[in-house]
Amino acid sequence: MDVLGSGHEQVVFCSDPGSGLRAVIAIYSTALGPALGGTRFHPYPTEEAAVADALALSKAMAYKNSLAGLDLGGGKAVIIGDPHTDKTEALLRAYGRFVESLGGRYLTACDVGTHNADLDVVARETRYAHGRSEAYGGCGDSSVLTAYGVFQGMRAAAEHRWGKPSLAGRTVAVAGVGKVGSWLVDRLVEDGADVVVTDVDAAAVERVLARHPAVDAVDDTATLVRTPSDVYAPCALGGALDDETVAALEAEIVCGGANNQLAHEGTAEALLRRGVLYAPDYLVNAGGVIQVEDERHGFSFARAEARAAGIFDVALRVFRAADEQGTSPAAAADRLAEERMAAVGRLATIRLPR
């Protein structure tokens, strides 16, 4: 793996044998500000797999933060291990000390395998841990605004495709009804959509059906993909849009909360050829990072929600740019993010008095 050729500013390997900590912190860019990105706690099969994930996720965070209009760069950390058995106070605090040692170049938050309470522990060793619990002055669960942002992106896609920013009367297939997916279902039902769901966790499906008896459920994702729908919303694991899924997809729009949905670089073009409007994942799921960023200023849910509502306008801008450029929305979003990183990042060359 060519780490030095990946375009990252800094990659840090963290080891504390006493606590069992083995972690990688990847900083892709600080052109717009300190690199913000969550900490993923996962039992990677190899160190190389952990590094690859950190590199990919940190780059995606740079683009996400840029497109969201935040004065933040992109970074990500991964802790190698099983969060159910390996997570301890000592390990989290050791990790916090490594974050602190970077002097604010990297700001951490929650991700898969870490929760608000974990960041409370990490914050005992560093000033740069965010996404803490409300009891400790943090923003709490960011899944609410993540789902809200996805919903705004879906409304924008509906406006672009059908001329009306509403899912009323449309069928939306939601793959994965964990925290983000279940909140998204709430929004869709309220908007008048017909919703079909699936999840590997049967209990998660049961909780959704208990709240919304009119929602339908199918056994698995393969069935859901082939279910006639207007919108397909992948809200579970990354890589959800592989060649087989794209070929079988019945929906006109893809818009969901999962990270890294495109299985490979050609997937966006494959969707375009099939006439499917793709809402780039890092654009529409930015509500969570908007919520976490707001914590740095004394958290206000209303203020963060108002900013997350802006995902609607950004998504429309991306869709229109893609049409004008004759390219996929994924390529158009990348271009807009890169342009902002270059234009605003250049201002750092204007030296200020000290």
Shape label: globular
CATH fold assignment of the largest domain: Rossmann fold
> Which segments are poorly predicted (pLDDT under 50) over 5 or more consecutive residues?
none
Report the strand count: 11
Query: In terms of quaternary structure, what is this?
Result: single chain
Protein name: Glu/Leu/Phe/Val dehydrogenase
InterPro entries: Aminoacid_DH-like_N_sf (IPR046346), Glu/Leu/Phe/Val/Trp_DH (IPR006095), Glu/Leu/Phe/Val/Trp_DH_C (IPR006096), Glu/Leu/Phe/Val/Trp_DH_dimer (IPR006097), Glu/Leu/Phe/Val_DH_AS (IPR033524), Glu/Phe/Leu/Val/Trp_DH_bac/arc (IPR016211), NAD(P)-bd_dom_sf (IPR036291)
Family: Belongs to the Glu/Leu/Phe/Val dehydrogenases family.
Keywords: NAD, Nucleotide-binding, Oxidoreductase
What is this structure, in a nutshell?
The protein is an alpha/beta fold and 354 residues long. Helices cover 44% and strands 16% of the residues. The chain has two domains: 10-63 and 73-136, 3-Layer(aba) Sandwich (Rossmann fold); 143-286 and 311-339, NAD(P)-binding Rossmann-like Domain (Rossmann fold), CATH 3.40.50.720.
